[in-house]
Write a structure and sequence with these properties.
alpha/beta; TIM Barrel; eight-stranded parallel barrel; two-stranded antiparallel ribbon; 10 strands
Length: about 300
């Protein structure tokens, strides 16, 4: 299986280890929803730009692979695009999607396969995932997190079952995925839920990936939607604190950008590498926003 270390191979000079290959390009996904030509053009430009070392994989839904391939044929990239294949066609659609990617290796380099996990993650389903996904691709699975509606109705997924699923996914050699936002308030996990996730994820021996809602470095209130967003720098520092037995919730809840940036700068390189061995990457529909934030905080 490909390793997190390999995905975070050193980028251009000046990219700190804490930030190398941190941001996967999810331009095709909400709320950005970029058209395919724009998404491909933006990714190809970003991977050769001044902060290319921050940029990770390109995310594409399985249902849009033909569209992606057609656009790459026109774009003629100098090297294959490092791809994370996001399965939106069900587990049964994985073999066909993988076959399509592998038939165009001059254009695409399959590094990761991501998909939602069923409410009750069992060994049989996990074994089918391992059977369908090539051994040299990372498997990223997203166990369903309980929502406020589940608690109100008395149905759905209790938090203990969610965390048990996170651990089971990791025990099968897959990376758990933490969804940090979405189109509704319920899609945003609480500080307590993220803290509970980190308490498990930092002890499994495999990395985790985050997605959605992490548009900016620092926790903030979005005036347009009214949602409180987690910050990816908060999540990095919370991971560091979880590994060293310090106050995780305070790091997640902080809106003090200067203090978080100073804490990040103060991390010794081995500690930064340990953080990234746990928190491998996150998907963002914008590459410019996280880079602008990091520049503004003096971290790039």
């Amino acid at each position: 299986m490909s390793s997190a270390v390999e995905l975070r191979a050193p980028g251009p000079r000046g990219i700190p280890p804490l930030l190398a290959r941190l941001v996967d390009d999810a331009a095709l996904f909400p709320p950005g929803n970029a058209p395919m030509p724009e998404a491909v053009r933006g990714h190809l430009e970003a991977r050769t730009g001044p902060h290319a070392g921050v940029v990770g994989l390109f995310l594409c839904p399985a249902s849009r692979l033909p569209e992606l391939i057609s656009e790459l044929v026109r774009a003629r990239p100098s090297a294959p695009v490092k791809l994370s294949l996001v399965i939106d066609t069900g587990l049964g659609g994985v073999p066909k999607a993988v076959s399509i990617v592998e038939s165009r290796r001059e254009l695409l380099d399959l590094r990761m396969v991501e998909m939602p996990a069923p409410t009750d993650v069992d060994d049989v389903w996990l074994e089918r995932v391992a059977e369908f996904v090539p051994e040299d691709a990372i498997r990223v699975l997203e166990p369903r997190r309980p929502s406020a509606g589940d608690h109100a109705s008395g149905a759905g997924v209790p938090r203990g079952q969610w965390l048990a699923s996170v651990r089971k996914v990791a025990e099968h050699g897959c990376w758990p995925k933490l969804r940090c936002g979405g189109a509704t308030a319920e899609a945003f996990p609480s500080v307590e839920e993220v803290s509970d996730f980190l308490a498990v994820a930092t002890t499994t021996g495999v990395p985790f990936k985050a997605t959605a809602g992490l548009h900016h470095a620092v926790r903030h209130h979005d005036e347009e939607t009214g949602f409180q967003h987690h910050g990816f720098l908060n999540l990095l520092m919370a991971t560091a604190r979880s590994l060293s037995g310090r106050d995780v919730r305070a790091a997640l809840d902080s809106t003090d950008a200067a203090a978080l940036a100073e804490e990040a700068r103060a991390l010794p390189e081995p500690a930064a590498q340990a953080v990234r061995a746990v928190f491998a990457s996150y998907g963002s529909c914008s590459l410019s926003e996280p880079i602008e934030d990091l520049e503004g905080l003096g971290l790039l």
